[in-house]
UniProtKB/TrEMBL annotation:
It is a multi-pass membrane protein. It is found in: Cell membrane. Keywords: Cell membrane, Membrane, Transmembrane, Transmembrane helix, Transport. The chain crosses the membrane at residues 49-69, 90-112, 132-153, 165-186, 192-213, 234-257, 269-295, 307-327, 347-367, 374-393, 399-418. This is MATE family efflux transporter. Pfam families: MatE. The keyword Membrane applies. Coiled coil: none annotated. Belongs to the multi antimicrobial extrusion (MATE) (TC 2.A.66.1) family.
């Protein structure tokens, strides 16, 4: 148990976590609106949006280090009382985002259609996806500015303004999308333009927030190189997740239509709850980074244990809720009896994983806040290679279906839990200093 002085109040945790949850949920909610609007254009346009949107998400998910890595570095400086330097990390992350975004923008103009054709085969769906992606990736620098903005603001423990900026941007996109698609007559391309306009507004608000802080706005290559070093480990970690999740979807699809549909229903619920649990991880990241930046390893360890218990309690609550909904909720997503019969094979794995996931996501936030990205990278890759991937492909070879796939996911989560708890107990992650490895101020 931690001493009273080392704890943070539940109110403080929620004050950071709830707005962060809003930011995490804003994009999936906008995608639902976009899908509903485009869905009335026809099957080709909807399929093009699905393919283009998937590619856009895969690209952007590999660059989330601009958010999580920036939070880790900024939180330490904020905890050390060096706010100007903390905000300067946000400036450099923004420059880095613009640089990477411009490269993606230019690459999209050449590669969008060929990549879409590689995945879907030549034809109208690939053409539609390519056209949408070319416009959407014009917003790559804007999206990455927003990621960097979320990162530094979380680091200085301000999660309210990012929520406001993202909601304003996505709200504008949601209003413009049906107007540009139908009355203006731009069709699928109108969806991409609406998204681009909303991203422009959100990015402008984040840039304005940097300017009013009066931090130096010049590019600093040394800081950007340091950010990329941390980013490399986070990118590899994210890549391990993507390989596992895409493999599971592929095996489910190869097993049969009912299996693929059932996996999609349960997987989307799992993904949604991961956003809910990740909001607690964001709060943990900010608080742990600040504690280490202030030179208090003991406080960081106390927060780590505290949020782990909160994550466990939250996971148990979610497990109880979804266990009680087992005979009701699946029917909301499909009325196909064959699919409903298969959903039951994955449902109880999904339910029983929630307490494990609650602790895992909380500790992810702890170690991200400690900038312990190299350990997270190694633990995630080993858990994937030992637990998840073998079970997924054995499921295809031996016809184990969803039982095998979700056994693999469960092994993956349990192995991650074991490695994270081992790391927590070791205490080696709690390196104090305004920058990891730099001695704390006296």
């Amino acid at each position: 148990m931690t001493e009273v002085g080392e704890r943070v109040s539940a109110r403080r945790l929620l004050a950071l976590a709830i707005p962060a949850l809003g930011v995490l949920a804003a994009e999936p909610l906008y995608v639902l609106v976009d899908t509903a609007v485009v869905g009335h254009l026809g099957a080709v346009q909807l399929a093009g949006l699905a393919l283009g949107g998937t590619l856009f998400t895969l690209i952007s998910s590999q660059l989330t280090f601009l958010t999580y890595g920036t939070t880790a570095r900024t939180a330490r400086l904020h905890g050390a009382g060096r706010r100007t330097e903390a905000v300067a990390e946000g400036v450099q992350a923004t420059w880095l985002g613009v640089s990477v975004g411009v490269v993606l923008l230019l690459a999209a103009q050449v590669l969008a259609v060929p990549v879409a054709e590689l995945l879907a085969g030549p034809g109208p769906v690939a053409d539609a996806a390519g056209r949408w992606l070319r416009i959407a990736l014009c917003g790559a620098p804007l999206v990455l500015i927003t990621m960097a903005g979320n990162g530094w603001m979380r680091g200085v423990q301000d999660t309210v303004r990012p929520l406001r900026y993202v909601l304003i941007g996505n709200g504008l996109s949601a209003v413009l999308c049906p107007v540009l698609v139908y009355p203006v007559g731009w069709g699928l391309e109108g969806s991409a333009v609406a998204n681009l306009i909303g991203q422009s507004l959100a990015a402008t608000l984040f840039v304005r927030a940097l300017v009013v802080e009066r931090a130096p706005l010049r590019p600093d290559l040394a800081t950007m190189r340091a950010q990329l070093g941390l980013g490399r480990d986070l990118v590899l970690r994210t890549l391990a997740f993507q390989v596992c999740f895409l493999s599971a979807t592929s095996v489910a699809a190869r097993t049969g239509a009912e299996t693929a549909a059932a996996h999609q229903v349960v997987w989307q619920l799992w993904s949604f709850l991961s956003l809910v649990l990740d909001s607690l991880a964001i709060a943990a990241q900010s608080l742990v980074g600040a504690a280490l930046g202030a030179g208090s390893a003991q406080r960081a360890k106390g927060v780590a244990r505290q949020v782990s218990w909160y994550g466990l309690a939250f996971g148990v609550l979610l497990a109880a809720v979804f266990a009680s909904l087992a005979w009701v909720l699946p029917g909301v997503f499909t009325s196909d009896q064959a699919v409903l019969a298969v959903i039951g094979q994955a449902w109880w794995f999904f339910v029983l994983q929630q307490p494990v996931a609650g602790v895992v996501f909380a500790l992810d936030g702890v170690f991200l806040g400690a900038a312990d990205a190299a350990f997270l990278r190694t633990a995630t890759i080993l858990s994937a290679v030992i637990g998840y991937l073998p079970m997924i492909w054995l499921s295809l070879a031996f016809g184990w279906g969803l039982v095998g796939i979700w056994t693999g996911l469960t092994l993956f989560m349990v192995l991650r839990l074991v490695t994270l708890l081992w790391r927590l107990r070791s205490g080696r992650w709690a390196v104090v200093g305004a920058v990891r490895g730099e001695p704390a101020a006296a």
